[in-house]
Amino acid sequence: MPYIQVLIHGGSGGVGQAAIAVALSRGCEVYTTVGNAEKKAFLQKRFPQLKDKHFANSRNADFELHIRHQTRGRGVDVVLNSLAQHMLQASVRCLAQNGRFLEIGKVDLSQNSPLGMAVFLKNVTFHGVLLDAVMDPSIGKKEDWQVCCIC
């Protein structure tokens, strides 16, 4: 299996914790954002594989610089994003060549916010994922969801 680096925003939330658990179980290197030191400490206790270098602040776009530094400018292979507006744009810029972006936030999707086409010069894919529809048996097939899953 190839080495995969993942950025999961909002790691201390329910979706974030589940995504971290899945990604770690698949051998991915996980970076995550949190809003404060307590949430970071909680995640470090729950996932001891996550060291200080794996954490960035979710309250501003400085996580972009952190990811660039930690990946030596390469970026990550997968972003699980729940941030909006300028933070969504910063998240997109965290993608490596051939990366996959999973957008689970509804704000930018429902407001039809512009994304910008330049990101696609890195041959990335962008998936809008409505979590409330993922398990709805009347929408799509299980196989469709597995195509864009992490790792």
Low-pLDDT residue intervals, each spanning 5 or more residues:
none
Query: What is the ordering of alpha helices and beta strands?
Result: EHEHEHEHEHEHH
CATH homolog superfamily: Medium-chain alcohol dehydrogenases, catalytic domain
The backbone outline, from C-alpha atoms, is globular
GO molecular function: fatty acid synthase activity; oxidoreductase activity
Keywords: Fatty acid biosynthesis, Fatty acid metabolism, Lipid biosynthesis, Lipid metabolism, Multifunctional enzyme, NADP, Oxidoreductase, Phosphopantetheine, Phosphoprotein, Transferase
Protein name: PKS_ER domain-containing protein
Domain Enoyl reductase (ER): 1-147
Keyphrases for this structure?
about 150 residues, NAD(P)-bd_dom_sf, about 20% strand, Quinone Oxidoreductase, Chain A, domain 1, alpha/beta, six-stranded parallel sheet, phosphoprotein, NADP, single chain, globular
